[in-house]
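Memo to structure team: turn this sequence into structure tokens by end of day. - J.P.
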Amino acid sequence: MKPQIHAPAAWSQPIDDFLANLARAGAPRPTRTLRSYHLRRFAADSQTEPWSVTTLDLTDHIDAREWSASTVKTFRSTMREFYRWAILHDLTDRNPADRLPRVRVPAGTPRPAPEEALSAALADADDRTRLMVQLAAFAGLRCREIALVHSDDVTRDLLGWSLRVHGKGGRSRYVPISDELARAILAADGFLFPGNIDGHLSAQYVSKLIAAALPGATAHQLRHRFATRAYQLGGRDIRAVQELLGHASVATTQIYTGVESEAIRRAALAAA
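Reply from structure team:
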């Protein structure tokens, strides 16, 4: 979880009101948490009144950090949204973030977790963490989705067991799971991973536990592994993989699905 940062008094109420507006609009909690962190971090570091902020203040804040292009893009988005909200509520008449340059994020590449890392995690992790690893590696769930798994989400049809996954933006999807995984979830009789966040563990804690069990790999790389194997061994149906991962765009799914080097060689030799 992002650490709580105490923003200067002039920022506190506007930030709280902005976040409340995001909640009313249905923004997911992780989005609100990230927006809150960016705003409070900037406010605490810049010590500038919110309605006196200039584009240069925002640029200096970015330049002082070794951020990835993706993080810069997210920060820019946060500030643009905040000031657009402030203009609509007559708190200011300008948006200093509008003049920040657009950020081009390099296309991602598949990063599936190594098989030896997965094998080590399944062999050495405790029962709870092993279940988390299995949900990421064999069902492609995000850490937030793993945290929300509930025994009521398991269903059975003529083909076998499926898990209702509570995805981003309030969207749900169904992912087929093994008999073994279904039995383990049903045995929980409630949240599979109980905790203090509305009855379940936080996504951040799930990520931490999985990363600790995976030598040299992360929870998200297990999702990449699932996507790559689902594509390569499941008939190379990119739309099916898109549905399994819960992506809004096939373009995003393509980042997750690695192409075997043998297939690349085969294509090149066929064209020669």
